[in-house]
Specification:
Layout (H helix, E strand, L loop, with lengths): L1 H15 L14 E7 L10 E5 L2 E15 L2 E10 L4 E12 L3 E12 L2 E11 L2 E2 L4 E12 L7 E11 L1
Length: 164
């Protein structure tokens, strides 16, 4: 199953590499900084807060990227989750189909006391541009667990991105 998902993701990225031109925000040479809201239950670089039975947990993180081609960015992210005291790192690529539909693939690693976990992240969304430099990005993401015995997880994220 993991190989099938990876093959599909690579095929989608390859197929879309020659799609429509950028609208300016995602052109070659631009940068993007993104913050996402999400779930602290999977390794991610998002912002979240939860409280249950008097216990509060939070996660914090940011992603950044550089458009080395029109609509195609290499991205990296860092995050921290206090409930498991784990650090998260992410590296991957994101392609904007038609300048507004980001699809991405990344490798996400988590490091926590007593272990680590690795995930392959596949995501797709929509970049709704509020202005020349700001977008809201609702995104659906699937994290494929790369270790035996672990399960993947779906996520729904709302991202806020700055382009400059």
């Amino acid at each position: 199953m993991k190989k099938v998902l990876l093959t599909i993701a690579i095929a989608v990225l390859g197929f879309t590499a020659n799609a429509q031109e950028s609208e300016g925000q995602t052109e070659k040479g631009k940068f993007v900084i993104e913050a996402n809201t999400g779930s602290a239950t999977t390794g991610n670089t998002s912002f979240s807060f939860s409280s249950s039975d008097g216990n509060s947990n939070f996660s914090i993180g940011l992603d950044g990227g550089y458009f080395f081609m029109d609509d195609l960015a290499v991205k990296a992210g860092l995050g921290y989750n206090d409930s498991r005291e784990d650090f998260v790192y992410k590296i991957g690529v994101e392609y904007y189909i038609g300048g507004q539909f980001p699809v991405g693939i990344d490798f996400t690693g988590t490091s926590f006391d007593g272990g680590s976990s690795n995930l392959l992240g596949l995501q797709a969304g929509y970049a709704y541009f509020l202005g020349e430099n700001v977008s809201v990005k609702p995104t659906v993401r699937y994290n494929v667990a790369l270790e035996d015995g672990r399960q993947g997880a779906f996520q729904g994220l709302i991202g806020f991105a700055l382009y400059f």
